[in-house]
Design brief:
By secondary structure, the chain is of the alpha/beta class. The chain has two domains: about 45-280, Aldolase class I (TIM Barrel); about 295-355, no CATH class. The chain has helices at about 45-55, 70-75, 90-95, 100-105, 110-115, 125-135, 150-155, 165-180, 195-210, 230-240, 255-265, 275-280, 295-310, 315-325, 330-340, 345-355; strands spanning about 60, 85, 90, 115-120, 140-145, 185-190, 215, 245-250, 270-275. An eight-stranded parallel β-barrel has the order 1-2-4-5-6-7-8-9, surrounded by six helices. Helix 2 (about 70-75) runs antiparallel to helix 13 (about 295-310), helix 6 (about 125-135) runs parallel beside helix 8 (about 165-180) and helix 8 runs parallel beside helix 9 (about 195-210). The longest helix is centred in the middle third of the chain and has 15 residues, at about 165-180.
């Protein structure tokens, strides 16, 4: 990738949503009555990467985040310049076997599905293929998680356990490619080894098997985010080791628009993925919101999507997102009040008593940035 020192942002500036710009699209669930969603063109994802290369910028990507990457948060991110968005990691075996798991883990809309990759945790190609077969009409691509370090997941042979089983991951990719052909975008998300030669061999192996995207979290399995800096050299070496038609995404330590450009400059990657940074500020990838704080309009947008897409029934998800995304605009005590709420009704009462929280359809909805939202 060419240097980005003279980068001119190509992302659209934020347009305050009106009733026509934020509307309730039909909620689509796999086992529900609405299953008419056409299969998104996976080639559009690859076209996005090509267009970004021509514009000399990285794609801006939302990482798969446990407890956070549900539909309302994904819909919110589309207002703030995100190019691609992932589901939380879903367990392929549970997804294929359990209608309850499918309902709990996944729902989408037409606009969401166009930029959505479903990430699965799987220990074998059969489970992964079966889960993909079910979800394929509703997503633009599939990601294989080879990076989750959680002990329970590793013990099941998924996540970071796969970093020592390149032959299993290769078989997963080949099996997906054999069944779904070139119409399915496949991403393999990895960590790095202490021996970087092993990392490069792993990346080459999955690329040769048919992966379109290799996402590199530049830490080892034992490293923890925030404790060990991301290894940008390792990510750069992966980019240099793979052919141009395989796109490489950098993951780790991206908390701002400036971070994204710096990481892209230092590694030459095609995309930059953020997780914690987006939780703290969903607008972090918009050049018009270069600060580290969430604009209040994002809170109102998320609240509207949560009401419209049923997150009120999964109260803890809403509570976590609101508490995290208001770190820079609410006081410590106010955020503690959010965490102490026991249900949707209590949280709604608290928010409406302290703040001007406009709903969709009200004048001025989703237009405030950092001032004017507190009640006097």
């Amino acid at each position: 990738m060419a240097a980005l020192s003279n980068f001119v942002p190509t992302q659209p500036t934020y347009i305050p949503p009106s009733n026509s710009l934020i509307h309730t699209e039909p909620l689509i669930s796999i086992d529900g009555v609405n299953s008419s969603l056409p299969t998104p063109r996976s080639s559009s994802i690859l076209e996005l990467f090509d267009l970004a290369r021509k514009a000399r910028r990285p794609l801006f990507i939302a990482a798969p985040m446990v407890r956070y990457s549900k539909l309302p948060f994904r819909m919110l991110l589309q207002h703030f310049g995100l190019d691609l968005i992932y589901t939380p990691m879903m367990l392929a075996r549970e997804f294929k076997n359990s209608p309850h798991a499918r309902t709990a883990d996944f729902s989408t809309t037409t606009s969401d599905s166009r930029v959505l990759l479903a990430q699965f945790g799987a220990s074998n190609a059969d489970d992964l293929c079966a889960a993909t077969r079910i979800i394929r009409p509703y997503i633009a691509g599939v990601g294989i998680n080879c990076g989750c370090p959680i002990k329970d997941q590793v013990a099941e042979g998924i996540g970071a356990a796969l970093m020592s089983k390149p032959e299993v991951v290769e078989q997963m990719v080949r099996t997906l490619r054999a069944e779904f052909g070139d119409d399915l975008v496949i991403d393999v998300k990895i960590r790095v080894h202490s021996d970087l030669d092993k990392t490069l061999a792993f990346a080459r192996r999955v690329a040769d098997a048919g992966a379109n995207i290799v996402t590199v979290h530049g830490r080892r399995r034992k490293d923890r985010s925030g404790g060990v800096p991301v290894n940008l050299l390792a990510i750069k070496l992966v980019r240099e080791a793979l052919p141009p038609n395989v796109y490489v995404v950098a993951n780790g330590d991206c908390f701002s628009f400036a971070d994204a450009l710096r990481i892209a400059n230092e590694t030459g990657v095609d995309g930059v993925m953020a997780a914690r940074g987006l939780l703290e500020n969903p607008a972090m990838f918009l050049p018009t919101h270069l600060g580290s704080r969430t604009p209040w309009k994002a809170v109102e947008l998320f609240w509207a999507y949560a009401e419209e897409y049923g997150l009120t029934g999964k109260f803890q998800h809403l509570q976590l997102v609101v508490a995290d995304m208001t770190a820079g605009i609410l006081t410590k005590q106010e955020r503690q009040e959010i965490r102490l709420a026991r249900n949707w009704q209590q949280l709604t009462k608290f928010m409406d008593s302290r703040f001007i929280l406009k709903r969709r359809g009200e004048q001025g909805f989703a237009q405030l940035d950092y001032d004017g939202f507190r009640k006097l």
